[in-house]
Hints:
By secondary structure, the protein is an all-alpha fold. Helices cover 86% and strands 0% of the residues.
Amino acid sequence: MTYLFIAVGGMLGALARFGLGTWIGQRWNNAYPLGTFLINITGAFVLGFINVYFLERTVVSPALRLGIGVGFLGAYTTFSTFTYEAMRLIEDGSYMLALGYVSASAVIGLIAVYLGMTLGRNL
Length: 123
């Protein structure tokens, strides 16, 4: 059952990302990637909310929680997981580890994108 929840959540998350990104892109004529930014920020917000609400405030089946967190938000954005994990490090008092995680993710992510773009352009 867990796999079904994750699969359905992933499908819905991918469709939501595409739909919202397209809708914003048609209305925002600027170089700044507002659609992706808003999707990432809302995904981070929702993941933070559901993890606290579902784990600390109410009882929700693990399958449903995974369907929303891993499935829907995993397809909607992975930035939500990144920011949630960074916040957990901060809450745990691991400030330097959180700073290193955020910094390394941004810098290495940019390097990886550059390398992927370079490889794609040279094939």
